[in-house]
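Figure 2 data, in text form.
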Amino acid sequence: MTGPATPHARLLVAGVGNIFLADDAFGPEVLLALRSRPLPSEVRVRDFGIRGLDLAYELLDGYDTVVLVDAAPRGHRPGTLSLIEPDLPDGTASAPPEAHGMDPARVLALAAHLGEGPLPRVLVLACEPEAVPRADEDIMPGLSTPVRAAVGHAVTALHTMVPALLADPAATPPLGRPDESAPPRTAALPDLATGAAQDR
């Protein structure tokens, strides 16, 4: 006799980034830190690394909300956390978006292209990097000091955000200390357009 079925996860926390490219490893490092401070059982926590196609398909798996954890240059002090809500594509592009790599904007476009319905709500918990090598540079493992310090802040932020999102998927959760949180506004992903975000 088997036990009760595990309910389908309603919220996905996805770490993205290349562990060999300095601060681009922020997302995977945050998910590693979450192992000692796990999120509620209604949340699926998964490190996608640079597997953009896997993440695109995962976005179609019936979640209410998805939180991407990533390094994203937005012109802030290194280690600053931003909460971004990107404008989601509608899947009407004339050609399929690129299926390789881990550019969050392209992954969302690919998911919209592959799926038949609307995407879940997507939030990006982004960290301002200090060190990200160019594509033609050698591997550079290890986070910079300010981004390493931001890993713990991101874990705390997720423990604040996730209960609010489970209670209300349309909520706009604070990043942590509400007195330091600006009113949230919708923003495009860095490669798509400029936009405001909630910063720390």
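Caption note: Residues 1-6, 176-196 have pLDDT under 50 and may be disordered.
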